[in-house]
Design brief:
Number of strands: 14
Mean pLDDT: 96
Largest sheet: 8 strands, mixed
Order of helices and strands: EHEEEHHHEEHHEHEEHEHHEHEHEHEHHH
Number of helices: 16
CATH topology of the largest domain: Rossmann fold
Strand order of the largest sheet: 3-4-2-1-5-6-7-8
CATH superfamily of the largest domain: Glycogen Phosphorylase B
Low-confidence stretches: none
Radius of gyration: 22 Å
């Protein structure tokens, strides 16, 4: 096995001081890079984002270039126009391939200018970013959740055709693939005909996401962690809460994440002021703030209609909380009912939440077993060690 000394991450998302509002992929790569640095591996991040900047944080060197389409108004206009005309579809695809070539040229220039060398590169599956990685660098695609998957399996609308085209082209030429769950592996094999992927579950820092001693629980509180959206099941938990409120007047519902239009939705759809006033929106929060808030929860609900894999679920379980999840395959891969959590169908979330409210022994057992599962299977150290081992096996 070869030695891994220098790693390149090519991504559209990375959590740092210059990019505070990012998705789960950006948080993942921040955590992965931090752990690789701790193991003595040099890490550079080539980031395509809203802004151009160059910084070093926690030992990770980050070089960001501005989004190619946003930086080139004419190219952006051509992309937009050709994407609306069926007869120009092939030209539309070429604008996306041209974008990848520009990114590749920028990576090559940056490497030569700084006299860099990389043993391995990693990128995500969405947008087909693997097409931008210089051919001489061996690389890995990690399947966080492509636009193709979101469109076909999770009901996302108005996905740019050029993005899907590039994703398919990237998988055609890529041999080294990491999937993050068995469900994720199954759907990517079906969609892209990938062969021999390496299954490496995402991991979290169980020392950071931990239960507080002597924490004060808000009685009959339901928390929701993630983007507040239809796809993530916001309306499902709201309707369940309306039913619960009839039996538990002290119940409250707490949303952590971008609220989108849901404060207005609450006002327009819930006539009872007591129910409306028991729903709280905290907005996006830092990791430390999330830990503090979730520690106050009696239960946490994950009603998502589709997930590749949920880091948020692992984080909450690490904080020793009883969870109620929707009956989707990726959740059922983690949750064993009634051992470490509960599984609810669309119409019976209020029933499962009631069980947790009513049965202290059940709630305590679910909570303790949730934490034990994270410690035994989903710690970040295990994920990073498996990742490095996979890097070493690639020629």
């Amino acid at each position: 096995m070869k030695e891994i000394k220098n790693v390149l991450i090519v991504t559209r998302e990375y959590q740092c001081s210059q990019t505070p509002k990012i998705g789960g992929t950006g948080v993942f790569y921040k955590n992965l890079c931090s752990e690789l640095i701790k193991k003595g591996i040099s890490v550079h991040v080539f980031l395509v984002s809203k802004f151009a900047f160059e910084i070093e944080e926690e030992g990770v060197k980050i070089h960001s270039v501005k989004d190619i389409f946003k930086a080139n108004p004419i190219l952006e206009l051509v992309r937009s126009f050709t994407g609306k005309v069926k007869a120009l579809e092939q030209f539309h695809f070429k604008t996306y391939l041209f974008e990848k070539k520009i990114i590749s040229d920028k990576i090559n220039t940056w490497i030569r200018k700084n006299n860099l060398h990389f043993d391995i590169a990693e990128t995500h599956d969405f947008d087909g970013m693997a097409l931008s990685i210089p051919k001489e660098i061996p690389y890995v695609i990690r399947c966080h959740g492509s636009w193709s998957v979101l469109e076909k399996y999770f009901g996302y609308k108005k996905v740019h055709k050029g993005r899907i085209f590039c994703e398919k082209e990237a998988f055609k030429i890529s041999k080294n693939i990491i999937t993050i769950s068995r469900y994720n592996e199954q759907i990517n094999k079906s969609l892209f005909a990938i062969k021999d992927p390496e299954l490496i579950y995402n991991g979290i820092d169980e020392k950071f996401y931990r239960p507080f001693e002597n924490r004060k629980i808000i009685p009959k509180s339901i928390f929701y962690l993630g983007n507040v959206s239809f796809e993530k099941g916001a309306e499902t938990v709201i309707h369940a809460f309306i039913q619960l409120k009839k039996d538990y007047p002290e119940a409250s519902l707490h949303f952590i994440g971008n609220p989108n239009h849901y404060p207005t939705y609450i006002t327009e759809t819930i006539p009872d002021p007591e129910t409306r006033n028991a729903i709280y929106f905290y907005g996006n929060k830092s990791g430390k703030e999330i830990v503090k808030l979730i520690n106050q929860a009696e239960t946490v609900c994950f009603p998502s209609k589709g997930e590749n894999f949920s880091l948020s679920l692992l984080e909450v379980m690490a904080m020793q909380k009883a969870v109620v999840c929707s009956a989707i395959d990726s959740f059922k891969e983690i949750i064993q009912e009634p051992v470490n959590g509960l599984i609810a169908k669309e119409g019976n979330f209020h029933e499962k939440l009631s069980l947790i409210f009513e049965d202290d022994d059940l709630r305590n057992r679910l909570s303790l077993n949730a934490r034990q599962l994270i410690e035994s299977k989903f710690g970040i150290d295990k994920m990073v060690d498996k990742t490095i081992s996979y890097y070493q096996s690639i020629k």
